[in-house]
Amino acid sequence: MSSCALEVRAAVVEEKGGPFRMRTVRLQAPRTDEVLVRIVATGVCQTDAHVRDQERPTPLPVILGHEGAGIVEAVGSAVRDVAPGDHVALSFPSCGRCSACRKGAPANCAEGYRLSFDACRPDGSSAYPDGVHGHFFGQSSFARFALASERNTVRIAEDMRLELAGPLGCGLQTGAGAVLNSLRVRPGESLAVFGTGSVGLASVMAAKVAGAATVVAVDVFDTRLALAAELGATHTVNARTEDVADQLRQIQLGGFDYVLEITGRPQLLALAVELLAPMGVAGLVAGVPAGTTAAINMRSLLVGGRMVRGIVQGDSVPQLFIPKLVELYRAGRFPIDRLVRTYAFADINQAFEDVTQGIVVKPVLVMGE
């Protein structure tokens, strides 16, 4: 590929809480360790909204997007795992050098937050020469082309629909991985899921795959709860109209083996602990602002050996877990398509509005020609 910068159509956030605006930006050619991907489709995730609204301090103007899927256009000379023409899903970045990465736990990379949210290359430079920030989550996939690294680029089968593959890179990987990798739910066990957006519904589907006997979905949208029941939830609770604690205690008298808190509400993390059976685990999956605290009853943790743990990206190794989810989808056991609604790239602002209103679970932007 030529060393000249490529002109790329991108959706750019220019001010706090502002709309995505379509701009043409320049993107430099990949360095030796980088991968240039022609984005075919990309998922919309709540984390993008958090950064748009500056709940997490990423510099503006910026190209967001971190659930990209597409076709490799070019690779740097040091890249070995993917080649031009490969179909790929893009996932989260990691350094490959810290203790977590060396233990095979890149989701807990010591540099992961910086690599995801600082909107620059690992060395602080940028491939965008015109003042716009990129490299968000090591990709910035709200654009027709994205630069990624070998570590966050996952080759997938060519017959896998790319509009379904994109969300596997973050939201669906996070929910399914929380159940299958982090908690390792076993047949016959019980799970409650607080929040049934794409992450929560992926958790419900994964719990069915794992053989959980009791799976309770909690939300405020009846449409999402109905979908959760179709996808594997044995019970549903509407937190707007029902007493969540009372209903869950009636459903599982001895407490739950696991509770996943995906809403980011501190009071629900505290409730999750209270609903655990002895030796149960409450998993915090939601991204929350820095300094957020929850008033957890310490005695409830102490008596019964209960546990609270944070879960990032479902403790996944993307190159291993994303292909596993693809195979589950092919087998009809992880029906991603039930969650997805596609939007033209130009309709990005409508996609964000629809997910906020609960109209759609997982919006996916399709780039078109």
What is the element layout, followed by pairings?
Layout: E1 6-13, E2 20-27, E3 34-43, H1 46-52, E4 62-63, E5 68-75, E6 87-90, H2 99-102, H3 112-117, E7 145-149, E8 153-155, H4 162-165, H5 171-182, E9 190-194, H6 198-210, E10 214-219, H7 222-231, E11 235-238, H8 244-251, E12 256-261, H9 266-274, E13 276-284, H10 298-302, E14 307-310, H11 318-330, E15 340-344, H12 348-356, E16 362-366
Helix pairs in contact: 5-6, 6-7
Label this structure with key terms.
single chain; 369 residues; alpha/beta; 27% helix
Can you put this structure into words, describing what you see?
- 50% of the residues are buried.
- The strands form 3 sheets. Strands 3, 5, 6, 7, 8, 15 and 16 form a 7-stranded mixed β-sheet that branches. This protein has a 6-stranded parallel β-sheet with strand order 11-10-9-12-13-14, with helices on both faces.
- The protein has helices at residues 46-52, 99-102, 112-117, 162-165, 171-182, 198-210, 222-231, 244-251, 266-274, 298-302, 318-330, 348-356; strands spanning 6-13, 20-27, 34-43, 62-63, 68-75, 87-90, 145-149, 153-155, 190-194, 214-219, 235-238, 256-261, 276-284, 307-310, 340-344, 362-366.
- The longest helix is centred in the middle third of the chain and has 13 residues, at 198-210.
- It is built from 12 helices and 16 strands.
